[in-house]
Write a structure and sequence with these properties.
- The chain is α+β, with helices and mostly antiparallel strands.
- It contains eleven helices and 20 strands.
- A hairpin with a 6-residue loop joins strand 7 (118-119) and strand 8.
- The chain is globular and about 85 Å long.
- This is Zinc finger protein 239-like.
- Pfam families: zf-C2H2, zf-C2H2_6.
- Residues 62-89, 90-117, 118-145, 146-173, 174-201, 203-230, 231-258, 259-286, 287-314, 315-342 form the C2H2-type domain.
Length: 350
């Protein structure tokens, strides 16, 4: 079974630490073993079987109606569709967490059992799967065999390359059932859905108690308390607490701007900067104030605006009933009552 345990932060095609991916075709075979062939009647003839010489036909592909993917086996398509429907039929008996694939549940169970049978010969790190160990070993060798044909970026894993390619295509096949947001990657959708459910499944920060929806965010946050900055730029020596921040910083030296606007051709260092820029063409304002309904193109202005509703007006005018959020505004207002002219009067010209 091909299982990828994510060693690095997730950034536009890089997998998150701790998340597990199981290939659909192999997961289908796994389910067949576990369920004693429950899916056999719904699948086509296994690819290993040779058809009758007289009836040989081209293999039929089963296409997903939600995205561009297709599969040789119907069972694989059914498993894939769970990414779109949100179905999670497999539940952990220890903690109740649910999964779309049986193989993923089995790997998750090792969190409770602590089984990690595979060990790195370089650093001693242990992994729960052989494929995870092989992927980890590329950190030591520096091997990145998978190359993007659009921009030349290389990746340690084929799945990372496929995820990255959506940066160029702009496809967003994963849709939220609670709102109209769409995402390029399923992990983005899962993280987004937690904004609706309020779920924060990862442990709280031991220093300040803040909780996070994603494990890698918690680990990066904890470095703010420890001051640890393990990622260092080889060109200028600057250090960062996140690998992603280092990768973005390197573009200052290389001049790389991999994200291009299809409307005007302008290029950007960050994909989120491109997303924000595109709204100048579309007029989209996806952020809405819950208090007054005002709309904004970016989240920072939206958050600042919402604070205007929540911040109390602490500064009360001693002459009337008006109050203000800022002391400077109060002093400016009081001049109405005192008739004070702070900049003096202009001299008379004879």
């Amino acid at each position: 079974m091909t299982v990828l345990v994510k060693e690095m932060e997730q950034v536009f095609g890089l997998k998150e630490e701790g998340e597990i991916t199981v290939t659909l075709e192999e997961e289908e075979e796994e389910e067949e073993e576990e369920n004693n062939g429950d899916l056999i009647n719904t699948r086509e003839r296994p690819e290993s079987e040779e058809p009758e010489p007289d009836t040989s036909k081209p293999a039929r592909r089963h296409h997903c109606s939600q995205c561009e993917k297709s599969f040789a086996k119907l069972g694989s398509l059914k498993i894939h569709n769970r990414l779109h429907t949100g179905e999670k039929p497999y539940q952990c008996s220890q903690c109740g967490k649910q999964f779309t694939q049986l193989g993923t549940l089995k790997l998750h169970n090792r969190i409770h059992t602590g089984v990690k049978p595979y060990q790195c010969s370089q650093c001693g790190k242990r992994c729960s799967q052989l494929s995870s160990l092989k992927s980890h070993e590329r950190i030591h060798t520096g091997d990145k065999p998978h190359k993007c044909s659009q921009c030349g970026n290389t990746f340690k894993r084929l799945s990372n390359l496929k995820d990255h390619e959506r940066v160029h295509t702009g496809k967003k096949p994963y849709h939220c059932f609670h709102c109209e947001e769409s995402f390029s990657w399923s992990r983005q959708l899962k993280a987004h859905e937690r904004t609706h459910t309020g779920e924060k499944p990862y442990h709280h920060c031991s220093q300040c108690g803040k909780s996070f929806t994603q494990l890698w965010n918690l680990k990066a946050h904890e470095r703010m308390h420890t001051g640890d900055k393990p990622h260092k730029c080889a060109q200028c020596g600057k250090t960062f607490n996140r690998l992603y921040n280092l990768k973005v910083h390197k573009r200052i030296h290389t001049g790389e701007k991999p994200y291009h606007c299809s409307h005007c051709g302008k290029s950007f260092i960050l994909s989120r900067a491109l997303t924000k820029h595109k709204r100048t063409h579309t007029g989209e304002k996806p952020y809405h104030c819950s208090q007054c309904g005002k709309s904004f193109t970016d989240s920072s202005n939206w958050k600042k605006h919402e604070l205007t509703h929540s911040v109390k007006k602490r500064f009360q005018c001693s002459h009337c009933e008006r109050s203000f959020k800022k002391l400077g505004k109060l002093k400016q207002h009081e001049r109405i009552h005192t008739r004070e002219k702070p900049f003096g009067t202009a001299p008379t010209v004879e």
